[in-house]
Amino acid sequence: MWIIVMASLLTVLYGAPTLAGRGIIVDPAWAYYKDRSAQSIAEEIKVNGYDEVHLIRADDELVKTFTEAGLRVWLLTFVNGVYDRQVLPQQWEAWRMKLRKKPDPAGFTMLCPNNPDYRAWKKQNLASTLLSHQFYGIDLAEPQMPAYPGPDSEYYGCFCEHCLDAFKRLYPEVICFPDFDDPKSPYYWKNNPELYAKWVEFRVATVVNWLNDLVNGENGIRRSCPKVKVATWSLGLDVPDQLAKLREWQAMDAAEIVRVVKPDFHVIQTDWPDWIKTELAPDYPKSYKPVFDSICRVAPSLPILLQTDIGSKPNMRRSRDWIANVEETARKLGYAGVFHYEYHLGEYIYSEPPRPIKAFYEGNTVKVLFNKRLDPIKASDTANYSLTSGSVESARVDGNIVYLCVTGVSSGSILTVSGLADDPSRRLFHDRPACAMPGTCEIVVK
Length: 446
Known about the structure:
The chain is α/β, with parallel strands linked by helices. It has two domains: 6-348, Glycosidases (TIM Barrel, Alpha-Beta Barrel), CATH 3.20.20.80; 354-444, Sandwich (Immunoglobulin-like). 31% of the residues lie in helices and 20% in strands. The chain has 14 helices and 17 strands.
């Protein structure tokens, strides 16, 4: 049997908050967040030691509830496309990137930043969203052009008419794109290094100019929503000659983005060839030093954040220890903060049993906060609860919260909990059984 003392536990695990706080990404479209209240989601995020939420999709109730709970809320928007086509207007098909061989990566629709209609719609859409909700800031995520590892990728691009027009405006002497298919062509990229070098620079300029227009241009974020903090994003990738490869392959130049756009924060996102590694060392942020240093040279006081992935593939689900070690490494390297994709993907969801974190006496109800979402059947069984004074009449479950209807209870009573489990049906992967409490837990009712 063990007594939970959450505040000291979090201090030991995570230390004091950094400048940007401990951040986590939440996408309310996942099953883990369905069929529960916004309050229970906010409470779960808070009891797990986070004080910033980067929210994918602008859910009004969630934004309000997170904010009222004292969590700083960011809107995370993808700059180079969408996951949900339903948010797009009817003419969106004309905005699609024209990629080398495939139409889009699975599940994501790529939209061309050189298309003026897409630009206008994106600025209007973001302004409307930011003016309708109480966001602290906005993440301009994944502005890169596709794709790793450069021209060999089937997703490489974009080759639409708007990109060709923009390429010619930047370099009036060019007449066409580099050729990436015919080695006999005079414009073949490996045989025409001058044309290819201009193409690389054009792609970098496309990303920088798009972000600058989105933030500082007419009807941009700063003019429409001047109080909202802006975080631009770029990539980190553990390869030799990292800065040059990121520019060439994915049109990413963090220093140039920061120099031109002048954001309030900049985020170095862990690129997918790194985050998919099963044995990614928690000190891996050290490998992004070239990107970090390049930003510091042009904006030495700019807060730089690190974005990580903690479980998008079954082989690379990260533990709490790994998360804590990454955060500690980042702090020592000078990062202002770290945030992770996505809260319910971490290893702890698949391995940790439920445990009560806090219990409050409110009228004839004891409100018990748990570390994770519960199996509603087991958690609603009153036989799994007992009190040193009083009795439990009924139990109602809301995500990670249990509301116990009680009689004869006073503050200071000890609640004993047993027999609970989490709900594996709400996980992304269904390769492990439910996590059940190994014994009993005791917690003092405040």
